[in-house]
Amino acid sequence: MVATRPEARLGELARRVTDLAAQRGWAAGRHVTEAELCEALQVSRTPVRSALRLLEEEGVVEARPGRGFHLRMSGPEAGRRRPRPQPTVEEALLARILRDRVSGELPAEVTRSLLLRRYASGRAVMEGVIARLADEGLLLRGGGRVLRFAASVGDEASVRASYEVRLVVEPAALLLPGFRPDPEVLAVLRDRHRASLDDFEAGRGAAPGALVALDADFHLTLAGFSGNPFMVALVRQQTDLRRLMEYAANEDSPRVRLWLKEHIAVLDAVTAGDLALAAQALRGHLERAARFAGAPARDTPAE
Length: 303
What we know:
Blueprint: H1 5-23, E1 31-32, H2 34-41, H3 45-57, E2 61-64, E3 68-71, H4 75-80, H5 89-103, E4 109-110, H6 112-119, H7 123-135, E5 139-141, E6 147-149, H8 156-173, H9 183-201, H10 208-225, H11 229-249, H12 253-271, H13 275-292
Antiparallel strand pairs: 1-3, 2-3, 4-6, 5-6
Helix pairs in contact: 1-3, 5-7, 5-11, 8-11, 8-13, 9-10, 9-12, 10-11, 12-13
């Protein structure tokens, strides 16, 4: 089932409300006002009211006559009860196109007419997908009417070479003298990972695009703390090359849960100031990811 774009936005806002309840530890029965949600989430009253009605349907809040909305459970429990987000029509089509490209069913160069015929999509929806792929750097304009997918690591040799570069660069970035982590950024990044892990463990899952973005943010944020622009550039390059492949990999729920836990372990070690442990954990994470991708680094024995 797919949602329209307004429905998807409403669902996301409802998730933000339950996130807020969990983060602030609100008690069951607490009065949840539109005004406080508008201020905390920086949105107007109308969408907040709609989100509360959606949460009422989900059994998270109840509307008491003349007294507004009240939590039917504790904030942490509300956070665990978040509804699974439904992908929009565009998101579902985008994921299908990327899967087909990664599998080789879709060539590196395409045209709008080819995509419209292959996916039997409306022109407006397809144009939205093409625009999003272009915005994310996954689709480039070629000559004439040709659209070209961005270069990607795909064969075993290139995947192995990519992981060998990352194994050299990313753990080392954490051990540089100039490595300066931002505690607030770390906390937000950890919360995002924890929320995604909770969703997977509750069977709700997540949109592949959101997971790809979270994975990229993790690796680029750590590289950014190094203060070394050359390391950041290398990590960004590898992230861009992996993006198409990551869309397919993030459909494997057990693997997603594992890398979310591994990321959290790295973030916890960095937060605790144990950078040697963080570097070791990051290296282990990359080695396991390489084996999962079917291209273990040559200096790493397979288990």
